[in-house]
Amino acid sequence: MNPSPSTLPVEVRTRLGEELAADLEGVYQALIGRGWTPDAARERARELIVPDAEALGRIAGVHRPLYGRLAARFGDTSVHRGERLALVAVTAVSLILVGAPLLRAELFASPSAFLPPVLLGGSVTIAAVLAKAFHLFVKRPSTLPALRAGLAAPIAAAGLTLLAAFCGALVDTYRFAARVETAAPTGSTEVVAFLGDTAALLAVALAFSLAGALGWFLLLHRVVAAEAAASATPLPPLLSEALP
Fold first, then answer.
1. What are phi and psi of 5, to 5 degrees?
2. Long-range own/partner contacts, residues 150-153 (CB < 8 A, 24 or more apart)
3. Alpha-carbon distances of 190 from 10, 104, 175, 179, rounded to whole Å
4. Rounded Cα gap, residues 150 and 127, in angstroms
5. Which of 59, 36, 3, 1 is nearest to 239 (CA)?
6. Which residue spans traverse the membrane (predicted)?
7. Which of 124, 123, 122 is nearest to 209 (CA)?
8. What's the pLDDT tens digit per position in 164-189?
9. How far apart are CA 38 and CA 31, in angstroms?
10. Is the pLDDT of residue 45 over 50?
11. Do residues 16 and 29 touch, judged by C-beta distance below 8 A?
12. φ, ψ of residue 218 in degrees (nearest 5)
């Protein structure tokens, strides 16, 4: 895919627009000071300052993200497949790093039946954070709407993971209470085991949810900053035509 002005990252488009707008205004005012009519001055300023399609293409090529230049060597299908496999691999490694200490602590000796769904929800949460971070910082979206695409996924997955854990703990508590009513435990071992399993379930859910919420907050901060920078200096009509 050949670089074009529309593929410029948002922050590059914003900075380029600000610089061209300042130069355009300076030339326009200088021509007005020399006695040019507004229409003639505007047209001449555009000819002098606004780059043509070839120049914009070269600018886009210079500022094209490194990932975009590397991915251009492969087909879109291969690139998307590679991205998905890399995301799965990184998420799996993250899950192993988080779960290994818990396994050594024997918190999963007799896990709750709701632990697998919580682990799945936590993995989806981490994957959503990594996918959006990859989109923002590596692929670098070129339009403002694309900045927020997929941004709600991490916080939604984190909330569902936490909800699943609390619902699971509630169901396990009712089941344990019913079992106790039927046959009272002879010692404290069964009660301690139940409390440990419930604590492990909630701890895992809280860890994943907090990680997802933190990742979502940092990503949101990055998106808001980019949007604010892009809207701080609206482009003049002449530049809006040149920078689609």
1. -55, -30
2. 151/216, 151/219, 151/220, 151/223, 153/128
3. 58, 21, 13, 11
4. 11
5. 59
6. 85-103, 115-138, 150-171, 191-219
7. 122
8. 999 999 998 988 888 887 876 666 77
9. 9
10. yes
11. no
12. -65, -40
Rounded to an integer, what distance in angstroms lies between the CA atom of residue 225 and that of residue 218? Answer: 11
pTM for the full model? 0.58
| Token pair listed for 188 | 């404290």
CB 198 within 8 A of CB 173: yes
> What one-letter code names the amino acid at 233?
T
Q: How would DSSP label each residue in the chain?
A: ----GGGS-HHHHHHHHHHHHHHHHHHHHHHHHTT--HHHHHHHHHHHHS--HHHHHHHHHHTS-HHHHHHTTS-HHHHHHHHHHHHHHHHHHHHHHHHHHHHHTTTTSS--TTHHHHHHHHHHHHHHHHHHHHIIIII--SSHHHHTTTTHHHHHHHHHHHHHHHHHHHHHHHHHHHHHHHS--SSSHHHHHHHHHHHHHHHHHHHHHHHHHHHHHHHHHHHHHHHHHHHHSPPPHHHHHH--
Query: Tokens 């919420």 map to which residue?
Result: 213
Tell me which residue range forms the domain holding 44.
1-244
What is the number of structural domains in the chain?
A: 1
Distance CA 169, CA 149 (A): 33
Task: Say what the pLDDT of residue 165 is.
Answer: 93
Radius of gyration of the chain, Cα coordinates, nearest whole angstrom: 28
